[in-house]
Amino acid sequence: MSTKMNVSSKIYLGLVYFFLYAPIIVLIVFSFNESTSTSVMSGFSFKWYGELLRDADTINAVKNTLLIAVVSSVCATVLGTAAAVGIDKMRNKYLRSAIMNTTNIPMMNPEIVTGISLLLLFAFSSQLLGIKNALGLHTLIIAHITFVLPYVILSVLPKLHQMDHHLSEAAMDLGCTPVKSFFKVVLPSIMPGILTGFIMAFTLSLDDFVISYFVSGPEWQTLPIRLFSMTKKRVKPDMYALSTLIFFVMLVLLMLINFMQARGDKKKEKDK
Q1: String of b and e for 169-204 (b: at least 16 CB within 10 Å)?
Q2: Which of 65, 162, 181, 194 would bridge 176 by S-S if both were Cys, CB 3.0 to 4.6 A apart?
Q3: What is residue 141's predicted lDDT score, i.e. its pLDDT?
């Protein structure tokens, strides 16, 4: 009986992985296809990677997306780490619970509701301040910080719960100021959580379409919005090449984070 269950669980797991990764494999394979066909492989070629480099609108959209993702994820990581430290130090459990519930709202709220709400907020603020161009780079960055911030907080908080709080107190007893104690003791202990939060914020910002669509304005086009505009006609094969490059970049980043976390865990075990 146990053998049958073991075989069926492996089959089920194999099917899950197949449906998850088969589309990505097909995408990678056809990014090297010489023709525009999505069913026949007519020959191996880097043609579409060259076409991608010559597509000025797509390259500009990639630059905009990367700029917004980097700025918003860095800001969200700093703010989220500070917020997590503040929440961790709260002694009133009811206040902590209320703040955590408030923090979870952007994660649970449908993106279309968040996007429309932010659009109305920016439009109202621009009229109040007399600003003509309400939407642009600044609204995109603010919107992305808003919806990725909870993910950073939830990544850092578990690391704060795991660390020994007596270490920072001991550092202050030995002459460290609270700020120096944070940077010398607390920050290295929670760094894996900070890095995880940063990567999550970066990938979520990179991938966002719904919220960006509402707050982008006419002059700033992100990559997801660019791809959406193509679906009205036809997605060009150079987008397969771009998607392949993004997939491998994110794969390398994920592997680096896992390596750093494993290295940190080994170091902790040796110190014990």
Answers
A1: eebeeeebeeeebbeebbeebbbbbbbbbbbbbbbb
A2: 181
A3: 92
Amino acid occupying residue 135: L
Q: Are 213 and 7 in contact, with CB atoms under 8 Å apart?
A: no
Domain hosting residue 82, numbered range: 58-235
Q: What is the number of domains present in the chain? A: 1
Distance between CA atoms of residues 127 and 119, nearest Å: 12
Amino acid in position 161: H
Query: Is residue 260, in this structure, part of any structural domain at all?
Result: no
Q: 44: which strand partners?
A: 33
CATH code for position 80: 1.10.3720.10
Q: Is residue 97 part of a domain?
A: yes
H or E segment to which residue 42 belongs = none
Domain membership of residue 68 (yes or no) is: yes
- What is the distance between the alpha carbons of residues 134 and 105, in angstroms, rounded to a whole number? 25
Q: Angle formed by the axes of helices 93-108 and 137-162, to 10°?
A: 140
Angle at 148 between CA 147 and CA 151, to 5 degrees: 120
**What does the alpha-carbon distance between residue 222 and residue 198 come to, in Å, rounded to a whole number?**
20
Query: What's this model's pTM, rounded to 2 decimal places?
Result: 0.81
pLDDT in tens, 169-213: 777 777 777 778 787 888 888 888 888 889 889 888 988 888 998
Q: Fill in the DSSP letter of residue 33.
A: B
CA distance 208 to 125: 23
In a domain, residue 147? The reply is yes
Distance separating alpha carbons of residues 140 and 225, to the nearest angstrom: 12
